[in-house]
Design brief:
By secondary structure, the protein is α/β, with parallel strands linked by helices. Helix content is about 40%, strand content about 15%. It is built from 8 helices and 7 strands.
């Protein structure tokens, strides 16, 4: 699961790690900006995860500045992304999950092709840096009108154009559904997938709900992903519970219902995730 689940709730950073392990999770993803936490906090995260036996698989970076045209913003965005990669390496993670951003000004000032080019060039350079640290960069599909990675076709095209062994795709299951991807569309990501997010939604709006709370055909998408040859981590991504006082129950429900689906598909392997 992703640690962002606990934000704004009574469950703190260290307790969240321990709770995740108690609930039954095999691994953990970290949503902490390296520029907003200190070395002591990083050490606490790593040591707690090591203590309870919850390996960190991914660090999550939302970085819209990567497509900004201003050189100063580009430098900051690149340095910030590299700080995430460094933090991921310290944690022993496998990847940095990267949300790139959106087209701006309706493409009337900078053409969308130019903004796309910014992203390709900068992510390729980040891939090179990540590879030097033993990590991959995985790009998330964002099912929004102006998002660069708004559907499977754009995500696959982007990974191909970056053309770097350390840059891969994140297949977010509720985002696949919101982008109207078919199960056959998932085949377009063959040999590209480096990480998975799993959640549910109502089919119309972004939700990141526990499995079974929406209409996403999670089992079918997950099978389609497995059919591409993917055998890595499946990470539950949750937005805030409607009742923050019951956040633990919210996470327990998500774990329980996801685990059922994975067991039905026989893809749960705690030793392999």
């Amino acid at each position: 699961m992703i640690s962002s689940t606990w934000l704004g709730t009574k469950v703190g950073l260290e307790e969240g790690i321990r709770r995740a392990k108690e609930i039954g999770f095999d691994s953990y993803d970290i949503f902490e900006d390296p520029l907003d936490i200190d070395d002591a906090t990083r050490q606490l995260i790593k040591e707690t995860c090591d203590e309870v036996g919850l390996p960190i698989r991914s660090v999550v970076c939302v970085n819209f500045g990567l497509v900004d045209f201003n050189p100063s913003v580009e430098r900051f965005a690149m340095d910030r992304a590299k700080a995430y990669i460094d933090q991921g390496a310290y944690f022993g993670a496998r990847n940095i999950l990267l949300v790139i951003g959106e087209y701006y000004w309706d493409g009337e000032v900078f053409p969308n092709e130019a903004i796309w080019g910014f992203a390709v060039d900068r992510v390729r350079r980040l891939g090179e840096y990540a590879q030097s640290k033993g990590l991959e960069v995985v790009i998330e599909l964002e099912p929004f009108t102006q998002a660069l990675m708004k559907d499977v076709d754009e995500l696959a095209r982007f990974v191909r154009e970056v053309d770097h062994a350390a840059v891969r795709a994140n297949a977010d299951i509720s985002h696949l559904h919101l982008s109207r991807a078919s199960f056959d569309d998932v085949k377009k990501l063959q040999d590209m997938i480096g990480h998975i997010h799993l959640s549910d939604c109502d089919g119309e709006r972004h939700g990141d709900l526990p499995a079974g709370r929406g209409v996403t055909p999670i089992k079918d998408y997950l099978q389609a992903i497995v059919d591409t040859g993917y055998s890595g981590t499946v990470s539950i991504e949750l937005e805030y519970s409607p009742d923050p006082e019951k956040i633990v129950e919210w996470v327990e429900e998500a774990y329980r219902e996801t685990s059922k689906i994975m067991d039905e598909l026989d893809v749960r392997d705690g030793a392999r995730v």
